Amino acid sequence: MSEWHEGDVLTNGIRIHYYRAQGKGVDSGKSVVLCHGNSDQGRQYGPLARELRDDYDVIMVDARYHGYSEAPRWGEDPDSMAHDLAGLIDALKLDRPVAGGHSMGAGYIFRAAALYPDMLRAIMLEDPGWRDHFPQRPLEQRLAEMERYRTATIEELRAEWQAKHPHWTDEMLDLMAETKKLMSPESIRRQWGSVDWRETLRQVRCPILLFTGDVALGGLVTEDAVQTAREIAPTLEHVHTPGVGHLIRYDSPEPYTSATKAFLSRIFG
After folding, report:
1. CA 128 to CA 189: how far, in whole Å?
2. Could you tell me which of 43, 147, 155 has the C-alpha nearest to residue 163?
3. What pLDDT is recorded for position 108?
4. The pTM of the whole model exceeds 0.70
5. Band (188; pLDDT cuts 50, 70, 90)
6. Which pLDDT tens digit goes with each residue over 24-40?
7. What residues contact 74, with CB distance under 8 A and at least 6 apart?
8. How far apart (Å, rounded) are the C-alpha atoms in residues 108 and 264?
9. What CATH class has 4-135+193-268?
């Protein structure tokens, strides 16, 4: 049996690719949907999926423009990925799954929990963009980055990531290099959400697990933002991992995995 079952669903007018972990949990009815960050791909959740697959039905999603999902060639609204997720959950007939995501993935899961309040059992957010302002890179700079991904070899891209993260496994280095080659240039069409994150948080009804790293090392969520979030949602659970930045589960996988398992155990009972 293959480690992952691969499939596609038609949702929100496009084709979305996914991977389903093949383990004892696939028929458990306890589904966990994992959504990657910008320029990544679903299989980068592989190490976590292996830890969860004997107890849960684990689905890893390639977002639009990424991996093997479709890259639409038309304009879209900022919540398109949230609607993609809702359509995937409906197409796979998942019963109120828990959804977890990193960065961009955390952002659209967060919005989906607000827009579809009865769809998700709980959400797990790894360093979401809970900030008021993000600098917008010039179009020319983004196009140049996409051209570099296109022209560089897998070996060159892998070497770049290995130089920055020498402790990463071969699997993660290979996947990080591969995903940059798979990313569609059409991604520059994406409109980033402009809704105040605090307003979204006020609309979320389900339990939330928030992972943060150190802002000084590149983490997005500040201590002030965590405090504000707790004032809005007092039941929010927060796990801070010191010594890492934005790539929390890549750079410190064991605390992330342990906290995820404990949270899922409490949510599913």
Report:
1. 21
2. 155
3. 97
4. yes
5. confident
6. 999 999 999 999 999 99
7. 189
8. 20
9. alpha beta
The pLDDT of residue 1 is 61
Tell me the Ramachandran region of residue 66: left when phi exceeds 0, alpha when psi lies from -120 to 50, beta otherwise: beta
d(CA 22, CA 4) in angstroms, rounded, equals: 6
Given a contact cutoff of 8 angstroms between Cβ atoms, the answer to whether 211 and 259 are in contact is yes
Mean pLDDT, the chain, integer:
95
Q: What's the distance, Cα to Cα, between the start and end of the chain in Å?
A: 29
Report the length, in residues, of the chain. Answer: 269
* Residue found by looking up tokens 């605090």 in the block: 198
Encoded tokens for 242: 């010191």
Spatial contact of 129 and 197, defined as CB atoms under 8 Å apart: yes
